Amino acid sequence: MLRYETLPVTPFQQNCSLVWCDRTNEAALIDPGGEIPRLLAAVKARGLTLKALWLTHAHIDHAGATGQLAREQDLPIVGPHPGDQFWIDGLPQQSQMFGFPPAEHFTPTRWLADGDTVQLGDETLSVRHCPGHTPGHVVFHSASAQRAFVGDVLFAGSIGRTDFPQGNYDQLIASITQRLWPMGDETVFIPGHGPESSFGAERRSNPFVADAALGRR
C-alpha cells in the first residue's frame, strides 16, 4: 500500500511529500524544495530506501534542492513535463530573487507526459499533465490509495496562481475540472501548500471551481 508523510519545507512552507510502498520500503520525494538534511532524516527515520525525486513543477520552492539532492544521493529526477524547461533553466535566478540557498541547474532523468505512470515498489501512480499554474505542471495520482499529489494546481479553498510567466487561468480551470475531478470526489489531495482536502469538498465549496460557481448546477 502507498504511504506518505507531508514535510513542509522552505520559508514558503511548501509541502514536500515523502511517499513509499509499505511492502518494499522503496520511497520517493515529491517536490524536494529545500532542507535536504531534514528530508533525508525523515527517510532514515522510517527505514526507507530513497529511489527517486518526482517533480510536479519547477518553481524554486518545489524544485530548489532537487539538483543537489540528485547529485549527492545519485537519484533520478522524474518530471515535470517539458513545458517547465524554462523554469528549470531559471532556478539559479529564482533562488537569488527569493533569497533561497543557491539552486543547482539539472536535467530531468525522465520527462513526464499526460498518461504516463511512475512506479514505486508495488505501487503505480498515474501522471496527469495539468498546465495553468506553469505550462509543465503534472499531478501524481494513486487510484488504489485515493490520493493525488497536486502541487500548486489546487488548494483547500483556492487554486494556483496564474500570474507567473506562461501561467494561464483558463488552462488551470480546465486542468482541475477535466483532469482532477474525474479522479473521484472521495480522492484526497495533497496540495503544494496548506492542508489536505478532497475533490468532492472543493466541488461543493471552493469559490473558484465549485460546481455552482462554474454554472454546473
UniProtKB/TrEMBL annotation:
GO MF: hydrolase activity; metal ion binding
Coiled coil: none
SMART domains assigned: Lactamase_B (SM00849)
KW DNA repair (keyword) present: no
Keyword Transmembrane helix: no
Domain Metallo-beta-lactamase: 13-193
Cofactor(s) essential for the protein: Zn(2+)
Keywords of the record: Hydrolase, Metal-binding, Zinc
Protein's name according to its UniProt entry: MBL fold metallo-hydrolase
Originating species: Inhella crocodyli
